[in-house]
Amino acid sequence: MVEKSIIRLMAYLFFIHSTMTIIIGYIPVFYQGQGLTGSQVGLLMAIGPIATIVAQPFWGYMSDKYKSIKRMIILALFGLFLSTAAFLIVDSFYGYMILMFVLYVFVSPTTALGDSLAQQTAIEKKVTFGSIRMWGSLGFAITSLLTGYLLTWIGVNYIMYPMMFMAIIALIIAFGVKDVPQTNKPVTIVDALRLSTNRTLMLFLLFVVFISSTHRANDTYLGLYIVELGGPEAMIGWAWFIGVVAEAAIFATSAYWFKRWSPLTFIILAGGLYTIRWALMGLISNPWFILPLQVTHGLTFGVLYLAAFQFVNHLIPKHLQATGHVLFITIVFGVSGIIGSLVGGYIIELTSMNTLYSLLAISAFVGVVCLALFQKGMAGTKNRFNVREIE
């Protein structure tokens, strides 16, 4: 029987990722409805990752310093609700710029720290990380689908109301989440900064960015691509639903398939599938063809995230787990988000959505080649990893 502490954590992940799906999947469409250009939307969506880069290391460091992920999550959720409410009184491009920064300062740690707590809880309770994390994916999937229909009915201009609703529920649940006992070793800012001197970690993150930036570009522009091809807003929800349900299936079954190869091998395979996925997306002219392609989201992002999280986990000292996990998420999704949103916006304005996806395929392929060389260089060294189940 699943412990109550794990059930509460699963519920928290469900609702906080529900909030995130609205931000990622529908805010670009909201901005387009406000009359903003493609490059303006790209700039606004790039501000979020910039705020993530600034904020997430701080939240991770504070969690390790004060030995409590829970308290940091609760503080961030209060800020998330207030910044979301502020969208109701702002209607200018520069106002949106400020609010996007503030919003991501608070929303980015809610998912990153949640995943870190899930990883630590999985180790303590001897369950798979994927079995806990899958509930975040299910929240993302179900909410993306329901929100698509809701906004088709009430209009995308009212996007902030479902965001505020999900944030409030996540906050209520967060009060019942339990921290994982931490080591007594004190954490200083010098300890946190030393992570950036880990050459293996930094090289790995650099190469993964070639792949993850393509994922973040798709996150930003998938909704716009569907609308441009003539699809209804409800189709955006279906696209996210199909993709993230496939992702949840990968997480749920990780205990069975993850034993077969090393994490790096799985990451390289995911990158290869990303290359094929984006190449096919670039050839599409009918929006309905996007839906079956979304099934590959599980085999791309799901595998990449689980394997990369596990790989990085081996490189992080125990007393810096939250800091290291958040550093990983900051670079892979923060830096990648800036690249994907900004460069993607300009590519769309200069060429087309189809060209964007073709270039994403090239970027993912470059990442695969770099990681394959990286793995070859690690073979036979002390950094070589033994295959083990995610716990």
UniProtKB/TrEMBL annotation:
It is a multi-pass membrane protein. Signal peptide: none annotated. The chain crosses the membrane at residues 12-31, 43-61, 73-90, 96-114, 135-152, 158-177, 198-215, 235-257, 264-284, 290-312, 324-348, 354-374. The keyword NADP does not apply. GO terms for cellular component: plasma membrane. It is found in: Cell inner membrane. Pfam families: MFS_1_like. Keywords: Cell inner membrane, Cell membrane, Membrane, Transmembrane, Transmembrane helix, Transport. Coiled coil: none annotated. InterPro entries: HcaT-like (IPR026032), MFS_assoc_dom (IPR024989), MFS_trans_sf (IPR036259). The keyword Metal-binding does not apply. GO terms for molecular function: lactose binding; lactose:proton symporter activity. Residues 7-357 form the Major facilitator superfamily associated domain. PANTHER family: 3-PHENYLPROPIONIC ACID TRANSPORTER-RELATED, BLL5896 PROTEIN. This is MFS transporter. It comes from Halalkalibacter suaedae. The lineage of its organism: Bacteria, Bacillati, Bacillota, Bacilli, Bacillales.
